[in-house]
Amino acid sequence: MKKVKERVSSFIWKTRSTLHFSSVQISEYLTRHKLGFIVNWPQWLKAIFYLLPAMTMLLIFTFYPIVNSFMISFYTGFNIQEGKFDDFTFLGNYEYVLRQADFGAAIQNTAIIVFISVPITILLSLLIAVALSSIKALKGFYQTIFFLPYVTNTIAIGLVFAFMFSGNKFTIVDSVGLGLVNQILTWFGASPIPWIGAGATYW
């Protein structure tokens, strides 16, 4: 094992030395031919060059969708498949949303998440962190359990939980469309619960 580490260290050192020597040679060559500006960039230009890939990705996948969604909110009769719309409106779509009965429930749900769920989550996270640092014997086990969701694909987690808790007040009639959790409840003689979707409650 020691020889392997020495070989890896030697390979890394030789690679870094070769790269450094090559960069010096290229810099000297460009300087001799009055092309030193290619490597002697100002700091602000280097920063732009290094940030350009990340900024390009943000522009395509973050900023453009936000601006495009904002523009679509002023269209009426928008067809997402064809990208066509009937007419423009100023605040008509916003007025329509504000008048919907579900909008108040959405605001209430958001308030619960912000003012109740977030503080409780932070408090529990702090307590768990203290427990993780205190229980030395189970430290690795607990860390694996609690941090596994952070390294797991969010979409995969969502699909698994959607399958486990599937079924609402319209689909759980006669045990049709029951998810895994509701199926387990029926095994013990309990009634299916609409966990998500129509008919779901806070509790």
Can you offer a commentary on this structure?
- By secondary structure, the chain is mainly α.
- The chain is built from 7 helices and 2 strands, in the order ααββααααα.
Q: What is the secondary structure topology, with strand pairs?
A:
Blueprint: H1 2-32, H2 43-72, E1 75-76, E2 87-88, H3 92-98, H4 101-134, H5 139-147, H6 154-164, H7 180-187
Antiparallel strand pairs: 1-2
The residue ranges in which pLDDT falls below 50 over 5 or more consecutive positions are none
Total beta strands: 2
In percent, how much strand structure appears in the residues? under 5%
Based on helices, strands and strand pairing, what is the structural class?
mainly alpha
Q: Strand order, main sheet: write it out.
A: 1-2
Shape: flat
Features:
203 residues; mainly alpha; 7 helices; 2 strands; 2% strand; flat
Briefly summarize what is shown.
The protein is mostly helical and 203 residues long.
